[in-house]
Design brief:
This protein is an alpha+beta fold and 357 residues long. The protein has two domains: 160 residues, D-amino Acid Aminotransferase, Chain A, domain 1; 166 residues, Alpha-Beta Barrel (D-amino Acid Aminotransferase, Chain A, domain 2), CATH 3.20.10. 24% of the residues lie in helices and 29% in strands. Strands 1, 2, 3, 4, 5, 6, 7, 8, 9 and 19 form a ten-stranded mixed β-sheet that branches. Strands 10, 11, 12, 13, 14, 15, 16, 17 and 18 form a nine-stranded mixed β-sheet that branches. A hairpin with a 3-residue loop joins strand 16 and strand 17. The longest helix has 16 residues. The structure holds pyridoxal-5'-phosphate (PLP).
Length: 357
């Protein structure tokens, strides 16, 4: 498959940036001036195009709208100084997208298009990267089926896009989680490890039920026994039990988070005991009752490191009297964001600086 990585670039005639408050951007509400678009037809990806951000016209029969053959990624760009914007572990996002594409029968997007496309967009729209309050520019690459026909089969046409959006923090306070015995997020052999649209669509109803009961998110349990902790809708989960960091291991039903991996690498770097293993919700609740559950936090690109205030399961709750992050979560948050914003050394080679001078 040959892919032409020579981007065709059409710059926006004017910028919309003055309409946006980059100090309070919200999340995913506004989009920067440019986007990347690439078509797949005649069995190959065509020339990638960077052009002004705008609507796309589609037919109501477009198969992705009906059958959800689509994958996406999420990463961020961080303002360092007026000449430099940092990207964080984008190679890992690319690799995950390739795996998601494979699972969803979407032709693989070329590595150069993905990585250089992000860099080109950042160069063009670097003024959209917020400078304050640990805000950032969220980067959303996605690929989806684009056949204009209603037929439940693998498509022949696809589109790949990269759009970007200035964002603030995803959660503005500690989160309350509840398990559910009625619903599951992912099954063995299913698509839980892929970042694909249906995983999110199917989680909305249980999440809505959880919200009605006063919780922010569902803490998913495994589909077979409803016993082992998996993850949260938008982030992976970490428990600190007796000073040991514990997170569910990857068994094909959990999204392998980039932030999860970064937390684990940092813990190992600090000689902090860390275990990737099956952890039952009973173990979590018992540790909570015994006063051995020091802290719970979620980890994800959008949420960064999000403190958990309550874990609710089967009529019982473990609560944490916290205002912000606990000490362990805070240590990870500081270490990760300091590297992202170029305020600490990067011993892991996680950063790709983009020169925007
Ligand atoms: C279901 C789910 N789990 C975990 C994560 C965290 O992954 P990452 O750290 O790569 O953002 C996300 C967010 O991307 C997610 O949507």
């Amino acid at each position: 498959m040959t892919t032409d990585t020579n981007f065709k670039i059409t710059e926006a005639s004017s910028s919309r940036i003055d309409n946006v408050d980059l100090n309070k951007p919200g999340f995913g509400l506004e989009f920067a001036d440019h986007m990347l678009e690439m078509e797949y037809r005649d069995e190959k990806w065509q020339q990638p195009e960077i052009k002004p951000y705008g609507s796309i016209e589609v037919t109501p029969a477009l198969n992705v709208l009906h059958y959800a053959q689509s994958v996406f990624e999420g990463t961020k760009a961080y303002h360092v100084d007026e000449n430099t914007i940092n990207l964080f572990r984008v190679e890992k996002n690319y690799e995950r997208m390739v795996r998601s594409c494979e699972r969803m029968c979407i032709p693989k997007v070329d590595r150069e298009v993905f990585l250089e496309g992000i860099k080109e967009l950042i160069k063009l729209d670097h003024k959209w990267v917020p400078q304050n309050n640990r805000n950032s520019l969220y980067i959303r690459p996605f690929a989806c089926a684009f056949d204009p026909i209603i037929s439940a089969r693998v498509a022949e046409k696809y589109r790949f896009y990269i759009i970007t959006s200035p964002v603030g923090s995803y959660y503005d306070r500690p989160v309350k989680l509840t398990t559910t015995q009625q619903y599951v997020r992912a099954v063995k052999g299913g698509v839980g490890a892929a970042k694909t649209a249906g995983n999110y669509a199917s989680s909305f109803y249980p999440a809505q039920q959880a919200k009605k009961q006063g919780f922010d998110q569902v803490l998913w349990l495994d589909a077979e026994e409803h016993k082992y902790v998996e993850e949260v809708g938008t982030m992976n989960i970490f428990f600190v039990i007796d000073g040991v960091l514990v997170t569910p291991d990857l068994r094909g039903t959990i999204l392998p988070g980039v932030t999860r991996d970064s937390v684990i690498q940092l813990a190992k770097h600090w000689d902090m005991p860390v275990e990737e293993r099956r952890i039952s919700i009973d173990e979590v609740m018992q540790a909570g009752k015994d006063g051995r559950l020091d802290e719970v936090f979620g980890a994800g690109t959008a949420a960064v490191v999000a403190p958990v205030e309550e874990v609710h399961h089967d009529g019982q709750s473990v609560t944490f009297d916290i205002d912000g992050r606990g000490p362990v979560g805070e240590k990870f948050y500081d270490a990760i964001t300091d590297i992202q914003y170029g305020q600490a050394e990067d011993p892991f080679g996680w950063i790709t600086p983009v020169d925007v001078s």
